[in-house]
Design brief:
- The protein is mostly helical.
- The chain has one domain.
- It is built from four helices and two strands.
- Strands 1-2 form a two-stranded antiparallel ribbon.
- A hairpin with a 2-residue loop joins strand 1 and strand 2.
- Helix 1 runs antiparallel to helix 3, helix 1 runs parallel beside helix 4 and helix 3 packs antiparallel against helix 4.
- The radius of gyration is 18 Å and the shape is elongated.
- The model has no long low-confidence stretch (mean pLDDT about 85).
- Keywords: Membrane, Transmembrane, Transmembrane helix.
- This is DUF2516 family protein.
- It holds the Pfam family DUF2516.
Length: about 110
């Protein structure tokens, strides 16, 4: 009986982890879609289409993991989302926003 409870707990824990990865990837996808396309080459990053495509596939992979399919691929989704959120997004965020100076809003 204890083994069944422990397995249920770990199954639920992994579902929560997969759901958190899905939310992170979806957030990165929305941010990439909202960013102007000219900001990516201006900051010497890959194109907007590449990032939206990678993050879109990552969101689908992580959503499928929530439902129990392809869980081993979610690490790729998380890596792509974290690279976008921690490296690309801060660089491209300042491009294309009127009224922003080098230290924030004027």
């Amino acid at each position: 009986m204890l083994v069944v409870v422990a397995m249920s707990f770990f199954t639920l824990l992994w579902k929560v982890i997969y759901l958190a990865i899905f939310v992170t990837t979806l957030y990165a996808l929305v941010e990439a879609a909202r960013t102007p396309a000219q900001a990516f080459p201006a900051m010497d990053k890959q194109t907007k289409g590449l990032w939206v495509g990678l993050l879109g596939v990552g969101a689908l992979l992580s959503l499928s993991a929530v439902f129990g399919y392809g869980a081993f691929l979610t690490i790729l989704s998380l890596v792509a989302a974290l690279i976008y959120l921690l490296d690309v997004r801060p660089a491209v965020r300042s491009i294309g926003r009127p009224g922003d100076g080098p230290y924030g809003r004027w």
